[in-house]
Write a structure and sequence with these properties.
Length: about 300
């Protein structure tokens, strides 16, 4: 029996089940991907005759047994239900493995962009962005941060978009505590995380979502750095360097060595981004606001003129 803790408030008990229970019920098909802590396969649920995604996690990967990322994902997803968040259908726990059974989606946004190199329509980008923001607004209103927003964690089934991979997600308390800064894949990390500022909030997901939306327009990651400092410089190259004078309350913006002035140099990227129209571009800039306290929230973003139909 595994006991899951979330914020020391809640415990979820997983009874030990037999490995053959899983093998008898689910017939494995193709491999879909490799997650942080295990392989994900497409499978047929023989009972319901539907496809599912089966995530198999080795229970002895870490000294303490099941990886904490898997436990986090279960604890968070068991509690929430939203049309734009992938559904966790079942969990099986044997001595050697933990199996997470998810609803199946056709692809993820990373694969989709690779397989569709032509420009996506503004309507598609608008529709997908709205759904992703809806999922984020829901999570943030339940005080949950995703902390790993990136295209491969956005699943697509037709024109329905679902956020997935909650292995780094966590609940936030009030008052805001100091959290680990080792979250969010580099290219989707906001400056406050790159600067190792360990008091952060929902703004980190908004920045990542901005980077995902930009990638739908550009067909490549907007800020593609290869180290912390290079990542910051890639950001400054497109958005301009934040001036300490504009951010007096942000002490992590006062390191002069890091913040040598970069003008908005990358005209090519900014011109491409503007192909989504004035409203879309302006929303992106609100998502890329340097000051996390002033960054637009998911709920506000959903009311942005970009989403108001003409
Ligand atoms: P994850 O460990 O959740 O990041 O999953 C790794 C990869 O497996 C993802 O990037 C997707 O390509 C694929 N995947 C995960 N969950 C699903 C699902 N429910 N439906 C289809 N593909 C999935």
């Amino acid at each position: 029996m595994i006991e899951l803790h979330r914020n020391d408030r809640k415990k979820v008990f997983l009874p030990l089940s037999n490995e053959s229970l899983v093998n008898n019920r689910y017939r494995k098909d193709t491999k879909l991907g490799e997650g942080t802590y295990g392989e994900v396969c497409k499978a047929v649920d023989i009972l319901s005759n539907t496809f599912v995604a089966l995530k198999k996690v080795k229970a002895d990967q870490e000294e303490e047994g099941v990886p904490s990322t898997a436990l986090r994902e279960i604890a968070i997803l068991r509690d929430i239900s939203h049309p734009n968040i992938v559904k966790l259908l079942d969990v099986y726990n044997s001595e050697k493995h933990l199996y997470l059974i998810f609803e199946y989606c056709n692809t993820d946004l990373h694969k989709f962009l690779k397989n569709n190199p032509q420009d996506l329509s503004i309507n598609f980008i608008r529709h997908a962005s709205y759904q992703m923001l809806d999922a984020l607004a829901f999570m943030h209103s339940h005080r949950i941060l995703h902390r790993d927003i990136k295209p491969s964690n956005v699943l697509l089934s037709g024109d329905v978009v679902k956020l997935a991979d909650f292995g780094l997600a966590r609940s936030i308390g009030i008052p805001i505590k100091r959290y680990t800064v080792e979250v969010v894949t580099m290219w989707y990390r906001p400056p406050e995380l790159i600067q190792k500022y360990n008091i952060y909030g929902s703004g980190i997901d908004i920045w990542g979502m901005g980077a995902v939306i930009a990638e739908m327009i550009l067909h490549e990651p907007i800020f593609r750095g290869d180290s912390d400092i290079d990542q910051l410089h890639k950001i400054f190259d497109i958005l301009g360097t934040p001036k300490p004078i504009d951010y007096p309350d942000l002490d992590y913006f006062t390191d002069k060595k890091v913040f040598d002035y970069f003008p908005k140099n990358n005209v090519e990227f900014r011109t491409k981004l503007k192909s989504i129209g004035e409203d879309g571009y302006s929303l992106l800039m609100k998502m890329f606001e340097y000051n996390p306290g002033k960054r637009i929230s998911a709920r506000e973003a959903m009311k942005d003129p970009f989403f108001i139909k003409n």
